[in-house]
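Job type: complex structure
Entries:
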Amino acid sequence: MGRGPCCEKVGLKKRPWTPAEDMKLTDYIQKHRLENWHAIPKLAGLLRCGKSCRLRWINYLRPDIKRGNFTQEEEATIIKLQELMGNKWSKIASCLPGRTDNEIKNVWNTHLKKRLAPKESSPSSNKTKDPNPSSPSKSSISYVNDDNIKNLEKNNSLKVESSRDLANLMTEIFMEPDQCNMRIEGHEPSVDDCRESSSISSLESHITSCEGKNNQDCLIQVPEIPIDSEIWSMVDDDSCFLTPEVGPVVEDGAHNNATSSIGDSKGEGETKGWLGCLEEEIDLWGTMDANAVKQLGPWGCHGGVVEEFDPVSLLLSKETLPTFCHESCASGPSMR
DNA sequence: AATTTTGACAACCGCCGGATC
DNA sequence: TGATCCGGCGGTTGTCAAAAT
């Protein structure tokens, strides 16, 4: 039955690692293949749990760890990705070469969260009054993350499986009167419109009508978390973001070249591929036919072209996409 | 100068999903 | 098929140094 016991808890050392322990672990890992964390403590002569060794290596000893303060660009990336994906630190870390999820988590908790706190409200608290409701900034799918979806599904017995569900979801998130910034291009709803269930139908029909169209024609603007304009300027600055030269780190320590800016010359197919990854990450694919997934081409998570009917593509236009990398999808799991 | 408070970050804890037996 | 393990992940805690009193 099963495997052998994980690790002997008795006698395992806790608390900070000493330089000698670091040296032992580093030495062992550099001389041997990394196959079994469970076995490493014993083999390396450490009174540590394998898990502890793994954490120490991944978060501190790894040679490709980038030390020092986070740059403004990195912080902007974290902010944007956190906004987009929630506390998926490992996913966020995969977009920041040399940074670990633990480090990013710490930075978020100690710096960024506090910095944004006065202005930013959580998705669930977006229903509170917006101090400046008439100033929706850039659009994004900021609030359509898995937390939103899960909470809404839980609270409202709602399952996101169709464009109708998505429309319901979005209205559920944004329909507070004071927050009614959502609009479909060419249609400017009043606050009352937003309250009306017809707006759900309107949105649903819009989403449905977008099937098969270029997603640039299908822009739906949603309110944006108000982040400092300077951050936006950084986010908008292509040069600030990850470039192929600093592509994400993969397990062998090398960089890949998969990273590119959304909206760059590599074209829309890549953008859609990225979106496909994103959708998968936040489970927006819902009940998508498995065969349809298999048909996706050679890019991204499934390596493919995102079908036109996919939900997030309908919510985004090329110009609203942040310039994130898509490494986590394009090159497999990063090493933590 | 001594003490208290605050901030930063390394490390731990517990849960989960997939793999293995 | 079910029990168990392993690796990964996110949340939380503990420790230490710097800043404030």
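Summary: Strands of chain A lie at 183-184, 220-221. Residues 101-116 of chain A form the longest helix (16 residues).
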